Amino acid sequence: MAEHFELPSTIAILPSRNKVLLPGGVVGVRCTSAASVQLVEQELWQKEDLKGLIGVVPMHDSQASDRPLSPRASMLQFLQEGKNFDCGERKSSVGAPPPSDLQPPVGRQTNETIHWHPRGVAARVLALQQHMEKPTSRVTYTVVLEGRCRFGVQEFNVHDLYNTARVTQLDSTKAEMEQAEKDPEVQVLARQFKSVAGDLISLLEPKLKAVERTKALLETASAHKLADIFVASFEGSFDQRLAMLDAVDLRQRLLKATEIITCHLQTLRVAEKISMKVEGHLSKSQKDVLRQQIRAIKDELGDNDDDEDDIVALERKMQSVGMPANVWKHAQRELRRLRKMQPQQPGYGSSRTYLELLAELPWQISSEEQEIDLVAAKDRLDSDHYGLSKVKKRIIEYLAVRKLKPDARGPVLCFVGPPGVGKTSLASSIAGALGRRFIRLSLGGVKDEADIRGHRRTYIGSMPGRLIEGIKRVGVNNPVMLLDEIDKTGADVRGDPASALLEVLDPEQNKTFNDHYLNVPFDVSKVVFVATANRVQTMPAPLLDRMEVIELPGYTPEEKLHIAMRHLIPRVLEQHGITNKHLKIPEPMVELTIQRYTREAGVRNLERHLAALARAAAVKVAEREQSMRRVTGDMIPEVSLMDHGEGRGGLGDAGGVEMEVEAVGIHGREVASAMTDLEPLLVDEAMLEVVLGPPRFDGKEAAERVATPGVAVGLVWTVVGGEVQFVEATAMLGKGDIHLTGQLGDVIKESAQIALTWVRARAAELKLAVAEAGSLLKDRDIHIHFPAGAVPKDGPSAGVTLVTALVSLFGKRCVRADTAMTGEMTLRGLVLPVGGVKDKILAAHRCGIQRVILPERNRKDLQEVPAAILANMEILLAKRMEDVLHQAFEGGCPWKPASRL
Ligand SMILES: Nc1ncnc2c1ncn2[C@@H]1O[C@H](COP(=O)(O)OP(=O)(O)OP(=O)(O)O)[C@@H](O)[C@H]1O
Question: What sequence ranges are listed for the domain Lon proteolytic (predicted)?
């Protein structure tokens, strides 16, 4: 460029309108105007070597607007192929006024204000091509110019149609430049420039063809050259390029170039970002296309279940349930995983089921709690349940506290009692009174902690625990949840369910209950927990500690009668689709059912028997309706025939009369029976026997059982409440061993040992069959059996019964059939208190036993027994075994009598 260059003092000028050619830049110019064509022909075309020089001077009009090309496009265009611009002299532009310090070219005046720039660039012709326009045969040229060096215009002259100018070279020589580049400031500026230029090349690298060449240029070329080349490469704004043209000083030039390139770099980066976004959108839309294609293929195959749509629906559902932020984050992660999987892939199903659970859980849904109306709650409890006044009172107290302090962390109520006494239905009444939904979790037989807390998702077939499953089912996060049979959970190798329950019931911990399957905390603090149990003895102490035990004892026969008449019969009739117009069960028949067919503490079996009666009645009613239909159904054709064959439509007034006459004549018997069947079915003893079978309990059992020596009537307590048990003892030749049968626990076995020792030690004193007394001690094996072998039995309360059975055996005297007993025995013959006294007395009463022998120290327990029952029974209190024996035998025993109550 400038360094090898001799600039003539006068040079032909090609105006470039609103464009600037810089040294190092290459442009293609289309010369179409007469002036430029003449310039080319006179200055270039005739020269043989095509090495002609012309000056390119920018000129701009006042409306010139900067219209830069995309920087990347312009750079690429330049670096790879150079670029074209039309010298584009509009007619008006030729002869535009020069800048103020120059004389304007003469001869061509227009109204437009056109300014010549006082500086230009001398350009060498690289290529020249002639064109012939059709049909005018006008000659035009395209000339490719390379900018070489800056010049300043001293004076414009007119040479025929085009201009020439007197010029002076502005760019320094090579030597001067080399000298200038040694300046430290220039060196810093040059480094800065090369650095941004390097950044620019790296950014463009993927698109740049001759990247290596450009990089090499950056390494080798001097900074001042590069500055021009780089700026020339961009279609920057006119002003920017003009400023670059004016930057004659090296420092200025480097500064200007750095500024322009930095500006381009930023623009490129923004453009890059935008294009990446656009590409992102594109790929999204491509995905949509793919999805549509898959859908079309599925449709074609008849496989229409659209998983993607399902997942979208699932996501929408998850968004709508209002999960806490941390759970939502977790769910989104899982959803992303699911999206990446194929439906056939292992793990897809489980991942989906998991997400469905998250979407179905009531994170925010609660039943709207109504203002608790204590009067209404009491009415409801009374209308649902007969008796149980103490229990109802406690429930009302509980509700009153909740009314005053809805978020009160009251104790968990635990109803304890035998089956069928109304524990579950009381809990559901509480839910009704609170206006909340009710859900029952049956915990009977739960031995695995995972049953409560769920399995971790790493297990195949893992599921959430019962608690979370229950909450999902009920659909609200504040139900009344009944933990049924909480005493039947038991620990084993699979963990302790009670410990999980502890967490559930602890108000401090249950805000963040952690189900292993769910793996995110769920707040169960709004749930009202109520528990039921048959007995508290088997419950772990910490669990019991969190609950308030409310005992529901068994019912007396009178209470059962009331419950049956008021609650069970109406409910049972309704359940079977009949009314009391169809079936009447009189009170005496209910009493008989209670006495002869049930021996339970609650009313479940009674309800079952009443249901059997209702079923029998339902069959009758259904048959009757059918027979009525048959009768009337037969009548209609008869009438139709009588109606001169005109069909049913002809049934007029006359038809009605004839029908009646004819029907009675033919089907008189059916009509008559249908009329009598309209009376309600009345249950009587015969019907009881037909429907329920022969009586199961006739009150003679005890008498029959104790008819031989060696049998005693005991009272025991099992999970179903008190029970009457017969203890049978027998002796045979042997070595003095004791055999026990009948599903016995360790404590009851010990009691048998104690009993035998006690009897052996007092054989003589008791005046037992003396002839056998010796062998009793030496060569007799004793076998004691507790009938109902399938029922597990344990506890100390059979002690006195065992002694009585042995004494009966060896004394050869039968015990009284009307007397049952209970009590723990010591070796000294003391009778110790036992539990469940009330239930035991109720059981004795149910079984027709009139006398009960109890340990003296159980006296206080008698307060719980209904007075009506005590009035009908003889209760004997014993301190010592001798007292028991004295009362147990027919005609008494020779020992001190027990004190009478
Ligand atoms: N006092 C009562 N008044 C009216 N109905 C009663 C009464 N007690 C029990 N029942 C009825 O007896 C049936 C059995 O009661 P429920 O199922 O509540 O017994 P439960 O004590 O929960 O038994 P389980 O321990 O076996 O679960 C229910 O239909 C209930 O309505």
Answer: 706-891
